[in-house]
Specification:
It is a single chain. With 181 residues, this protein is an alpha+beta fold. Helix 4 packs parallel to helix 6 and helix 6 runs parallel beside helix 8. The chain is built from 8 helices and 4 strands, in the order H-E-E-E-E-H-H-H-H-H-H-H. A 4-stranded antiparallel beta sheet has the order 1-2-3-4. It is globular, with a radius of gyration of 18 Å.
Length: 181
Amino acid sequence: MQAARNEVAEYAEAYGWPLIEEMPTNDDRVPEITWRISSTVNLHYAEDDATGCSYVYVTAGYRDQCQAFCEHAEQHLNFWPREQLLAQYDSSSNAEERAGMLLMLALASTQRVDTEGQERIMAALRDPAEDVREAAIYATSYTPDWRYRPLLESVAESDPVEELRDDARNMLATYDEAGIR
């Protein structure tokens, strides 16, 4: 992770983007780090709790700005191409690997409709392996969408594992709070 953090810091430094914030955490995890690209655009570095993967994202005043700087970052930073994540998930040989790759795939998803990733998350909510269903419930939080609701409701009502039923109910409550219907 240190190498990834250094790579992003060097990228920001090369373009003269000042470091504006290191949001602390309550434990030993790496804080989220933010650089200012312009008055309306910021570059963020963070590490995902579930996967341990580092990632960057851009916040901007306009969608086009965000898209342009995301594409710029993709050209200058090492990252897992989307196609590679899909292929890795599809070729996973066991439930543990499939669950981990599903979370990485969800982490790499964008807010726009991601049909390929969404189809895999929806299928994983019905997977026979408990670990994969658990990962799928969590994966629906990366890019929440109303299309997940019927499957989350099904898990909440009839999954054979009580903890997963509870997890699905909690996710549905979070969707309700966010107005995702």
